[in-house]
Design brief:
Rossmann fold; 4-stranded parallel β-sheet; 17 helices; globular; binds iron/sulfur cluster
Length: 448
């Protein structure tokens, strides 16, 4: 490994086949390494923001409140409250004298003026509050007593850990909301955990399940509402799409509500088909398993011609991946394999040891596997491995474009679904359009 990688980062990067599973992960970012990973508060907000009728107060400086619906396009079939962001806008005097009164006043103001009337408020305490020590629990508790609604604190100073800690705090907040409904009678059906309905993806998966004969009780948190979330304890099975953010919630729901869970992925033909069959089998109903098998075969047959059409233009191309969780990275590697492409760089923000082991087993010899990468590392390895395309999110897009490289947005901001069979078609077309765009030869100056 060359000198441009910080000494402290070397344990988190593997550049030879078979060693990727052994990389250092699930650790705090190296100070000064300029991690691509989001902060604790962002991790919590990612999970809670899609609850459509919730109000979000960011107790901190105004900058933290820039995280809004606009940077995470979860769709709604109901309320649009979640598209707003509120902040206590802490200033120097609040930092010196404390911001508790300002927070209480912000909650009171929302209760007085906001329409529709708040039923649920999340209060996110960000970095500066972690330093000053405002008693956010006490303010939220007093507000609950005063207004008779749920006011749930999410103490998520950005510096207090990794994005994974933010996920955990959000899951705890959800449990604080649904826990009082633990005794609800059970009924046949599943909860969808860890799907945030980006570009309507949760609707696609819910429609599949319902067509197969599997009722969906609650969705956590894509297109959910305060009332719908409280039905979650009734389900017989939890299916977990984004394991990085929601496996902990599934574990708590198994321990406290007796709901078993399975991890699923609806990206790519192989994973979508396998996930539908696994969900059906887990419910123990042969008729539903037969429905799932027939449905998956029928839908897979509709996307195979699309894949065959584009495969000759994509075969042999080289992909780099940098996404939030390991489970998504694994599905993407499988999708590139289905297209005859090679994954040459793969990294995640919050991958776990077992996920990196699977990644190492899937990628070819010489692929670079890295946890919690920074821009310099990604640029260097994409160039060294001669990647043709980077799949990532908003923070990775400029890295690819600066290198004159194709890019595919597989993160929060995209406006078209990439999950399910519909998503496979969109994904293949986007990869083809981006990689084979004539623009790259002009950017690189090798046009005739
Ligand atoms: S790192 Fe701290 S200041 Fe920055 S967005 Fe996160 S919580 Fe706010």
């Amino acid at each position: 490994m060359k000198k441009s990688v910080l000494e402290e980062r070397k344990a988190s990067i593997s550049d030879s086949c078979g060693k990727g599973g052994g990389i250092c992960c699930e650790k705090e970012s190296v100070s000064g390494a300029v991690s691509q990973r989001a902060c604790v508060y962002c991790g919590a907000r990612v999970v809670l923001n899609p609850i459509t009728d919730a109000y979000h107060i960011v107790h901190g400086p105004i900058g933290c409140a820039s995280y809004t619906w606009d940077i995470r396009g979860s769709l709604t079939s109901g309320a649009e409250t979640y598209r707003n962001s509120f902040s206590t806008d802490l200033r120097e005097t609040d930092i010196v004298f404390g911001g508790e009164k300002k927070l209480a006043a912000a909650i009171d103001e929302l209760m007085e003026k906001a329409l529709p009337a708040p039923k649920l408020i999340f209060v996110f305490a960000t970095c500066i509050v972690g330093v000053t020590g405002d008693d956010v629990d006490a303010v939220c508790g007093a507000a609950e007593a005063k207004h008779g609604i749920r006011v749930i604190p999410v103490k998520a100073p950005g510096f207090s850990g990794t994005k994974t800690r933010g996920y955990k705090l959000a899951c705890d907040a959800i449990m604080a909301l649904v826990g009082p409904h633990a005794g609800s009678p059970k009924r046949f059906g599943v909860n969808i955990l860890g799907d945030y309905n980006l570009a309507g993806e949760m609707w696609i998966i819910r429609n599949y399940l319902e067509e197969i004969g599997i009722p969906v009780i609650s969705t956590v948190t894509g297109d959910s509402s305060c009332e719908a979330l409280t039905r979650a304890p009734q389900a017989t099975l939890n299916i977990v799409q984004c394991a990085g953010s929601s496996a902990y919630l599934a574990e708590r729901m198994e321990a406290e509500f007796g709901i078993p869970y399975i991890k699923v992925s609806f990206f790519g033909v192989e994973d979508t088909t396998a996930s539908l069959l696994r969900v059906a089998d887990a419910l123990g109903r042969p008729d539903i398993s037969a429905n799932a098998r027939a449905f998956a075969e029928r839908r897979a047959a509709t996307v195979m011609p699309v894949m065959e059409k584009y495969r000759p233009r994509l075969e042999g191309k080289r992909a780099a991946i940098f996404v939030g969780g390991g489970f998504k990275a694994i599905s993407l590697i499988r999708q590139f394999n289905e297209l005859g492409m090679e994954t040459v760089v793969v990294g995640t923000q919050t991958g776990k040891k077992d996920e990196y082991e699977t990644i190492a087993a899937l990628v070819g010899g010489g692929a670079v596997v890295l946890d919690d990468a920074n821009p310099a590392e990604l640029e260097r390895f994409m160039l060294e491995k001669r990647a043709d395309i980077l799949v990532g999110g908003v923070k990775e897009r400029p890295l690819a474009y600066k290198l004159g490289m194709a890019f595919c947005d597989h993160n929060h901001e995209r406006k078209h679904p990439l999950a399910g069979f519909e998503g496979i078609e969109n994904f293949v077309k986007e990869i083809h359009t981006s990689i084979n765009s004539p623009v790259w030869k002009y950017v690189k100056g090798d046009a005739a």
